[in-house]
Amino acid sequence: MYASEYNGDAMIGSEHMRRISRVSPSRIVFVVMDGVGGLPHPETGKTELESARTPNLDRIAGDSLCGLTDPIGPGITPGSAPGHLALFGYDPVLYDVGRGIVEALGIDLDLEPGDVAARGNFCTIDDNGIITDRRAGRLSTARNAELCRSLSDIAVNAASVSVFPVKEHRFVLVLRGEGLSPEVTDSDPQQTGLSPKRVQPLLPRAQHTADVANQFLSEARVRLTKEDAANMVLLRGFSLRPEIPSIPDIYKLKPVAIAAYPMYRGLARLVGMDVLPTGESPTDQVETLRQHYDRYDFFFVHYKHTDSRGEDGNFQAKVEAIEEFDNALAGILSLDPDVMVVAGDHSTPATLAMHSWHPVPFMIRSRWCRPDGVSEFSEQACLAGGMGRFPATEIMPLAMANALKLDKFGA
Questions:
Q1: What is the CATH number of domain 11-96+245-402?
Q2: Which of 142, 236, 309, 320 gives the lowest tally of CB atoms within 10 Å of its CB?
C-alpha cells in the first residue's frame, strides 16, 4: 500500500504522528542528493553512482539499512516539490504544492493573500518558435536580473505583474489583482522541439488569469526578440500559498535547512524549517552544519548538482558531482549523527536528461538499525537491501523511530 491510500501524510497520518512523536536529544541529519538515481551508460553498463568513486557513501551503506524508494508511486515521475514533500512525510497527492509559490518563498518574497506566483524559465526558441533550450544555456544570474528588470513593467489588463530573478535561468512571476486563480495550465511543455503553449483555464473562473498570463507571454516575446539565447520565457506551477501542517507541529522537531538553491529553501520554509545561509559547495554546506549542530535536532542538507548535471545530459559531470559530495561527507561523518539518512527526491538519469520514474537509492544509519549487508550505495546494491522497495513517505517515521522520538502506538 502507498501513503496516498491513507487519509494522512505518513502511513499512519499526521494526527497520529502528533500523538506519538516526542522530543529527545537525538539528532537526525537528512541528506538529499537531488536526482541521484540514474540508468546504466550504454558503453559501460554502469549508472552514475556505480561509476563514481564513493568511499564515504559506501562506508555509510555498510552500516545502514538500505532500499529503493518511490516518491509518488511506481511509474510516476515526480517534480522536485512533491518529491521532497514525500521525503518529509507528506502525501504529495494530498498536498499538491505549486512550484511558483515554492520559488517565491525561496527568495523571501512578501506575498499578499490572493497573489498568484509562477515559476519561470528564460529559454531559447528558433525562428519558427520551437524551443531549442529550455534553460537558455543556463544564463548567468546577473544577466537574468537584467532581463527581469526589462520585463517588470509589462502592463496587462486589471492585474499587476512583477518579475523577480532566482538563479541562472529561473525567475518568479507574481500576478496581483482581483479575481486571480492558480487553476491554469503551464506554458512550458517541459521538453525541447515543441512550441511554448498558451496558458489555458482549468475552470471558468480562471479565464481572467489565463488572459493575463498570455498577455505577459506575448509582450515578453516581443521584448526579448533581440536576445541570442534568452529570447522567450516559459511559465509553470501557478500557485497560491497553501495551508500545510508544519514539521515542528507534527514531529516536535526543531528543524533547519541547509540548501543553496532558492526553491529548496522555499520548500523548507513552507513546512516550518529555519533556513540557514550557506555557500554553494558541499564543503560550505557541511561547514554550516558543523557551526549550527548544537542548535537543532533535524538537519535537511540538500545537494543540487547531481540533479542539474543529470538534466544537462552530462553523464561524466554527474559522476563528478557525486564524487564531490562524497568527499564532503567525511565532515558529516565526523559529527557521528545519531541518525543519518541519505536519499533522493527522484531519479535524473543523464541518459534521459530529465527527471524519471525510476526508484531512488536510500539508506539510513543509526545504532538501532539492523545493517543488511549492503556494502555500496548504488541502485543495484540498494535493490537487495533490507527495506526493499517502499514509499518515500515512510522515511520520516523510520528516521523518527531510530532517533527514539516516537512513543508506542496504541495500548
A1: 3.40.720.10
A2: 142
